Amino acid sequence: MIDSSNDESLILAMASGNGHAMSYLYQRYARSIFTLAWHMTGDKALAEDITQEVFIKIWQKSHTFSQIKGSAKSWVNRITANTCIDKLRKQQDLSNMPETLEMQVSTYISPDQQVISSRAHDAVQQALMMLPERQRLVISLTVYADTSNAETAQIMNISVQAAESLLARARRSLKETLETLNPQIVKGAIHD
Fold first, then answer.
1. What angle do CA 18, 19, 25 make, to 5 degrees?
2. What residues in the chain have per-residue pLDDT under 70?
3. pLDDT given at position 11
4. Which of 37, 74, 82, 95 is the Cys-Cys partner for 70 at CB 3.0 to 4.6 Å?
């Protein structure tokens, strides 16, 4: 019997070949892996592919997981971040980075609000894609994967102070890029 409430136990059970553990882990992490991949790549289809690839890697590498090195969440996010970086590097060799993505709206909002929200989302996504890879990763981890600064540092293999500094630079760069692309988005965010 596996402890389905403990991510670390699930990964250790997977290392022993337990497919049920993978199912529990998939239910728990699929959405966050997809979200991180989506914001790292700016491409929904690629994010779906990355999500599947990450779970294959989790299954294949489950025997390498060590609780001493960090939490299951950090381990999964590190695999996701590495997979995104690998895909982006391959994609850069083949073509240009995607510019924007279509926003999904899960709850009803008025058509006017949808247009404004979609434009803001597109502008943020476009600006995010223009950031250097490490800045995009630190923002994606802290904002979209909801990791703490310590977890982000561990995933990126840097000190907490370096992660905090990189995050501050990334936020400044994102704001400057947004101001260049669409000043109304930044002005609206500051005044709202």
1. 100
2. 1, 92-119, 121, 183-192
3. 92
4. 74
For residue 119, how many C-alpha atoms fall within 13 Å in the half-sphere facing its CB?
A: 13
Q: Which two tokens stand for residue 47?
A: 């994010």
Please give the DSSP secondary-structure letter assigned to residue 144: I
Q: What is the pLDDT of residue 4?
A: 73
Residue type, 141: L
Residue 156 · residue 134 · CB < 8 Å = yes
| Separation CA 22–CA 14 (nearest Å) | 6
Within 10 A of 40 (CB to CB), how many other CB atoms are there? 28
> Is the entire prediction scored with pTM above 0.70?
no
Q: What is the pLDDT of residue 79?
A: 93
Q: Are 61 and 79 in contact (CB under 8 A)?
A: yes
Are the C-beta atoms of 58 and 49 separated by less than 8 Å? no
pLDDT (0 to 100) of residue 68: 83
